[in-house]
Amino acid sequence: MTMREWRLPTALILLGLIPIIAGLGRLGELGTGPEVTPANARFVADPLPVVLHIVGAVVYTILGAFQFVPSLRRRRWHRLVGRVLVPCGLTVALSGVWMAFAYDLPAHDNDVLAAMRLLFGSAMAASILLGLAAVLRRDFARHRAWMVRGYAIALGAGTQAFTHAPYFAATGEQPDGNVRAGLVVAGWLINLAVAEWYLRRPAGTRRARPARQPRTAAR
């Protein structure tokens, strides 16, 4: 990988760093038999979906970032890692839907946000399955597009940290109700908008592969 190729995966991993750290902290807490509080009661009572969600998200975020490296896409790496990422991504999406159904709403959330979590979790799972179906048909363009969209939704938690920051800086309080729902949804929509821009960039802005030189007949 060249230095230029490192930029995008590094940026994607950094974007996911806040939820990765928070998730690993949650796993550490659950592994030590924590005191039950209103903030963690639902996780302590039923840890399986949140553990699956966090483990899947950490693997999906980090390994998925390197699928954007052109030199790796042309090697066996891309296919082998893809076989790990599909089940990990589906685990993230479906465990997110599971949590939306299984857990009581936290104090700052409302039914609108719960519905949006179901919608975007389902959309992520659908994107991954559509990407898988496309590659099985050897339709690599659609495979790439759907996988990029699924990854964009997965990174929503990273962007949501930034959509919440201005509100917290201005008020000193955590948002709740419809305001929180709007800020969470904004994180997903920003990521999907960037994903569509990435997929639709003019061909001249993409790094072109070296042209294959025609062979000349031996004389």
Residue runs with pLDDT of under 50 for 5 or more positions: 207-219
- Helix-strand string: HHHHHHHHHH
Into which percent range does the helicity of residues fall? over 70%
DSSP strand content = under 5%
- How many DSSP helices? 10
The structural class is mainly alpha
What is the alpha-carbon Rg in Å? 20 Å
Strands, total number: 0
Q: Give the CA-CA distance, first to last residue.
A: 39 Å
Mean pLDDT score, rounded? 89
General shape: globular
The biggest sheet amounts to: none
Written description of the protein model:
By secondary structure, this protein is mostly helical. 74% of the residues lie in helices and 0% in strands. It is built from ten helices and no strands. It has helices spanning 3-15, 17-30, 41-45, 48-65, 70-73, 76-102, 111-136, 140-154, 156-171, 177-200. Helix 2 (17-30) runs antiparallel to helix 4 and helix 6 packs antiparallel against helix 7. The longest helix has 27 residues, at 76-102. The protein is globular and about 50 Å long. The two termini are 39 Å apart. Residues 207-219 have low confidence and may be disordered.
Short key terms for the protein model shown above:
globular; 10 helices; disordered C terminus; 219 residues; mainly alpha
Architecture blueprint of SSEs:
Layout: H1 3-15, H2 17-30, H3 41-45, H4 48-65, H5 70-73, H6 76-102, H7 111-136, H8 140-154, H9 156-171, H10 177-200
Helix pairs in contact: 1-4, 2-4, 4-6, 6-7, 7-8, 7-10, 8-10, 9-10
